[in-house]
Amino acid sequence: MGDPTREEPAPRPAASPTAGETEQAPPLPARPPPPYVFDAADDVNHNRSHNHGDNHSDNQSNHSRQRDPSPSPQLSPKPAEFAIPRKAVASGSRTPSLTLEINTSQPEDFEGELATNNELPSRDTLRKIGNYIVLDRDGKTHPFKSLFTGSNVARRVLLIFVRHFFCGNCQEFLRSLSEAVTPDALLRLPVSTFIAVIGCGDPALIDMYVSETNCPFPVYTDPTRSLFQALDMTNTLAMGTKPAYMRKSMTRSIMESVVQGIKQIPAGNALKSGDQRQVGGEFLFEPRDLVTPVSTPRAEKTQPVGAFEEPSDKWATNGKGADHREDEEKTVTWCHRMKTTRDHAEISELIEVLGLPAVRVAPQVQRQSSGGGPSSATSQTRKGRGHSMAEQIRKLSAEQSRSPLA
After folding, report:
1. CA 313 to CA 13: how far, in whole Å?
2. 203 phi and psi, to 5 degrees?
3. What is the pLDDT of residue 11?
4. What are the CB-based long-range contacts (under 8 Å, 24+) for 143-146?
5. In this entry, which stretches build a coiled coil (predicted)?
6. Is residue 402 exposed (0-12), middle (13-18) or buried (19+ Cβ within 10 Å)?
7. Beta strand ranges found along 205-305 (DSSP E)
8. What are the φ and ψ backbone dihedral angles of 374, each rounded to 5 degrees?
9. DSSP string of 5-62?
């Protein structure tokens, strides 16, 4: 009688039940350990159900609810090499939660003025970056040091680092600078002085950049931005306060930049203007050894002051100037690093640093200044740091003007 497939119940006691008593079902066999536990002693839940008598009935009912009503074959435990023992946890102890540390400090980009400084680059830094490569408008490579030192380069060179080639702020700065400081004004100085511009975009955009800014000075580019980083120029998109050299509204500058980018789409250069977060600065390179004659040699005055121009036959045969100029070490005597996207040094400060007579460019300075004349570049408004040879240049200019041979 009964289902033959069912497990035989435990033998009944010899005494028959009395009338009125109901027959009790035999207890269920102990539940086998889970198939992923090899040793039942390591099963915390299994041990707990047998160790706590008061919870035995509850555990049994839970096992009954979780059990599939249909009969299932008995699962044998896995071999020892596949066992994943579950270790018991001490009562009251909890696994420590993992804490994710998030940097909530203000990012360097996009907000506020950057905490940059105007420390002069060290001699080691200048030697290290001397062989870094810049590209000209034709994509030809030049060592960085060839822009400020060598036999065919001016003894004093102001290098201006600008942002991407579509930046309307830097373009407006170069327009103002080109009107106030001309190559002719630099040629009148007793020591050969020149200016060069370095961007960070594709060299194919240099011609466009020169055309938009009317810049009379050579423009180069450092697409890798290695020079920007080595000279501690950093990244930001903050605009900052409006400088005196900005004569256009911000809306107009942005619209002109967009139009310039659209025009470059057919040539495939719309996205090659350079990193828009990169900001630049100004660095003045001058002779390090003050014992060297400050005045320009007479033979040098007939030579072009632009970089990378071929020397004339007379200069090539005259070894005096070439030997002297080739060995002359240059250093940065004054510099300024931008804190915002329109934080170039004011034109009046550059005029002062270069040693140019303010009276020759007074109309431009007065038009750009918000409330001052040629002397508006006071110590309170200066952005850069350092001591250039400007004072010596002015003294030599005064002596030259008094000389009958000048």
Report:
1. 130
2. -60, -20
3. 57
4. 144/227, 146/307, 146/308
5. none
6. exposed
7. 219-221, 281-287
8. -60, -25
9. TSPPPPPPPSSPPPTTPPPPPPPPPPPPPPTT-S-GGG-HHHHHHHH-GGGHHHHHHH
Give residue 209's pLDDT.
97
* 315-344 average pLDDT score: 73
- Tokens representing 110 are 């996009």
Q: Are 196 and 220 in contact (CB under 8 A)?
A: yes
| Strands of the 330-337 sheet, one edge to the other | 141-143, 133-135, 219-221, 193-199, 156-161, 281-287, 330-337, 385-386
Q: What is the pLDDT of residues 84-106, one digit of tens each?
A: 555 555 555 555 544 445 444 44
Which residue ranges form the domains of the chain, and what is each CATH number? 123-402 (3.40.30.10)
φ/ψ of 360, rounded to 5, equals: -75, -20
Q: Residue 143: which of 125, 151, 154, 131 has the closest Cα?
A: 131
Q: Which helix (H) or strand (E) holds 172?
A: helix 168-180
**d(C-alpha 209, C-alpha 109), whole Å:** 26
Instruction: Tell me which DSSP letter residue 360 carries.
Output: G
The tokens for 309 are 């121009």
What whole-number distance in Å separates Cα of residue 369 and Cα of residue 363? Answer: 10
- The position carrying tokens 């008061």 is 54
In the chain, count H helices and then E strands. 13, 8
Distance CA 82, CA 299 (A): 90
Mean pLDDT of the chain: 74
Segment 377-382 shows an average pLDDT of: 55
* DSSP letter string, 51-103: H-GGGHHHHHHHHHHHS-SS--PPPPPPPGGG--------TT--PPPP-----
Per-residue pLDDT reduced to its tens digit, 47-75: 544 444 455 445 454 444 445 554 545 55
Distance (Å, whole) CA 228 – CA 167:
16
